[in-house]
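User: My instructor asked us to take a sequence, write out its structure as tokens, and then describe one feature of it. I'm not sure where to start. Here is the sequence I was given:
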Amino acid sequence: MGERVGSPKAAWMVCVLRAHGHEPTYRKEQGTLDANSRAIYREIDLHFHDLRHEAGSRLLEAGWPLHHVKDMLGHANIATTGTYLNVTTAGLAESMRRFGTAPVLQVLASTSVSEHKPDRKRRAPASRQTAVN
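Assistant: Let's start with the prediction itself. The structure tokens for your sequence are:
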């Protein structure tokens, strides 16, 4: 059982095998890859989707804005792109370094944290309300 020579799936399998240094062999009577070539292909475990993932990740690492990568990959929702590319904050330090904001971060990191003012839109609980509230 296998993909017939000339089908898109068979062409993909042959390309993957050759890219990994294996010259595919065929079962002539069926016109399909032989069992050894199919086993090697399964071990490689590379799919077209993996290449999309890699391309998107490389564009992002090269500095493309996430919304441009989203458009390039054809996603309707940027959340899909974020999940698809496993977007993390791993590249944040590098981005900050490239844009010269590291000194600002050092100042912010060394500044003591002050208490935030209360949100004026929320009312205090009834037990804490005063005539001023």
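For the description part of your assignment, you could build on this observation: Residues 8-44 form one domain. Try explaining in your own words what that tells you about the chain.
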